[in-house]
Amino acid sequence: MKTRQLPHTKYLIVLCTLIFLTSCHSHKKEILTDQNDYNAYLNTSNSKVISELNDQVAFWNSRIKKDSSQIIDLSKSAGTYAALFNQNADIEMLKKAEQNLHKAAQKAAIGKDNYLRALAQNYITQHRFKEAKTIIDSAAQVGGEVSASNFVLFDVAMELGKYKEAKTLLDKEADFSNYNYLIRLAKWEDYSGNLDATIQHMENAMRIAERSNIPDLKIWVYTNLADYYGHAGRIRDSYNHYLKTLTLDPSNAYAKKGIAWITYSYENYPQEALRIIEAIEKDTKSPDYTLLKSEIYEYIGDHKTSEDLKKEFINSATAINYGDMYGAYLVELYASQPETADKAITLAKKEVSNRPTPMSYDLLAHAHYGKGEYKQALKIVQDHVIGKTYEPAAQFHTAQIYKALGMQKDLTTIKEELLETSYELGPVTYSQIKNL
């Protein structure tokens, strides 16, 4: 499956895929991609950019004296560390940015809310949502840029499943000429299941970004809009917007990964998807590429390589600095094997505690399903998932529970909807849906 990306930060957000050898896509669909469009980008490297950023970090750090109050230097260093994380997904860079932002926020007498907001966004990226809530509440109490704080308060409320609070905050900042408002309104509409409205608001935000001609804003909105186009079945538009991203940022791993997904899930060309992913890997330390490769190797029948890569992903994703960033993916992996189902349940409970959203409860239900506790799984989805999220992955997990409990009438209804999600969920899940 390909998890739907919800806009809330500039940082890389991980795509999840489930892929397996099936016959349901044994024919190729219309070929939209062209290697001539993106081959040059696969040969690029971000090493020069990283080297320049490392030089900047060294410069700003050299100006920071122990126990000094050089807040500007601390914030510049933090910003450069964050830029490094965006380039290579090195979690150490994100942690160093956190440390310097924390120091700057402690020392600041003027503009304290700016540093607190940046720190809250850093915590969101690390999936430390409750800590982000504490920090952004402090920023709101300090005052300063109220609208900016309200937007981050909205982001945190959405992550914590506090949807009424999030909508109240969003309504306070209603302004259809404001990029930050529009991207969050799109996020709200996506949560509400209104994909057409989501795309409309993102397209309006794109026009604002293009008029402003700020590369970071354009890159962010192009990649998010490309994702939404994919959800809507507008694959050509999705592909074109990933390409537009690469014209601005030739090393952008997220856009390249989006193209890899198109070659795999839409065009049924896993070898090309592997080629693209392997080109990305030289510039990133993100473990999710290992997981994606694992599943592609499973699809093409190389089960040994697939299992080796899964183990490699688990070893990387459970490293202490990642905290709970990869909890959802680990639950999925652990729930797929009876011998690790208890571990999946433990992790899923932690996800619910950290982030009590319908999707976290879906993970908990899926973990119980993996252990064969179908009635417990059904109770969880009935109480916390059904009617509360429109994500296809949650619907699929619910369908599996219906199947296990022989609830044929409910299964038939949900299966009809799921059969429309072949591109978004990918071939393996689509095959499983057909067999429900």
From TrEMBL:
Keyword Lyase included in the entry's annotation: no
PROSITE patterns per UniProt: PROKAR_LIPOPROTEIN (PS51257), TPR (PS50005)
Keywords: TPR repeat
Cleavable signal peptide: none
TPR repeats: 219-252
Protein's UniProt name: Tetratricopeptide repeat protein
